Amino acid sequence: MALVESLQKAINYMEEHLLDQITIEDIAKRADVTSFHFQRVFMILTDLSVGEYLRRRRLTLAAQELTSTTCKIIDLAYKYGYDTPESFSKAFRKQHGISPTGARKGMGKIQSYNRISIQVKLKGVEPMKYHIIERDSFQVIGIKREFSCGAEDAGIPGIPEFWGEATENGIVNQLVQLTNGQIKGLLGITENFNAEKNVVDYWIATEYSGDVPDGFMSYDIPAAKWVVFEVKGKVPSAIINAWKQIYSEWFPSNGYEPAKIAPIEAYIDSDLDSPNSYNEIWVAIK
Prior knowledge:
The protein has about 290 residues and is of the alpha+beta class. It contains ten helices and eight strands. Strands 1-6-8-7-3-4-2-5 form an eight-stranded antiparallel beta sheet. The protein starts with a helix and ends with a strand.
């Protein structure tokens, strides 16, 4: 329940400061996680980016105030964080389907987005298979690329293309041949989030013990306790669904919290398109 409580604290903070210029770092501090990790978990649980949630809530409150008071539209625009009445009207129309003036005249329906409350749902229909292990630090080798996290959501555009390039130029095959660690297959690792630039490093890697071969870089994974989740099904949909279960069901139902160590997606099966494809997600816990 600790994860749920910390996320709710962060959401409460957002609600208490809807009219302020808050940053993702301010919000993530309330959940005691990195800003990138908070954005990722928030997106997994709500299917919304933090920025989109804040926009929807602000425009919901703006609409309520618009229809219940005589406050000038220009004053509402500034109050809810818009530089000009025009930018406010554009955002208002996008959410509500009508202009602020039309809403005030009762010419359409308002789209109200309510405050989010994180709750545990006991489903139990789809069991999760996992095991917990403790490991000393280990090395992975591979290639990495810096990606923009995007302005509108917590996703990372460009990663599928990165995998495609690595497959075409033979890097993927080389890494498969070099694998000699405990985690089999290819690894996808997201780490080193830079909040100022809104960028993150993404690795295509494999666990490898020994001197780093030419053409590759190394990344050291610190010693930790890990929960290893079995993921069965076609990729990427099976991976996405597993992440949703991990954060919406497993963590709220267990006495662990995610550690501040980059999680690992292990692509073990050679046929990722198979409905029976077996892969794993490794999450460091505390």
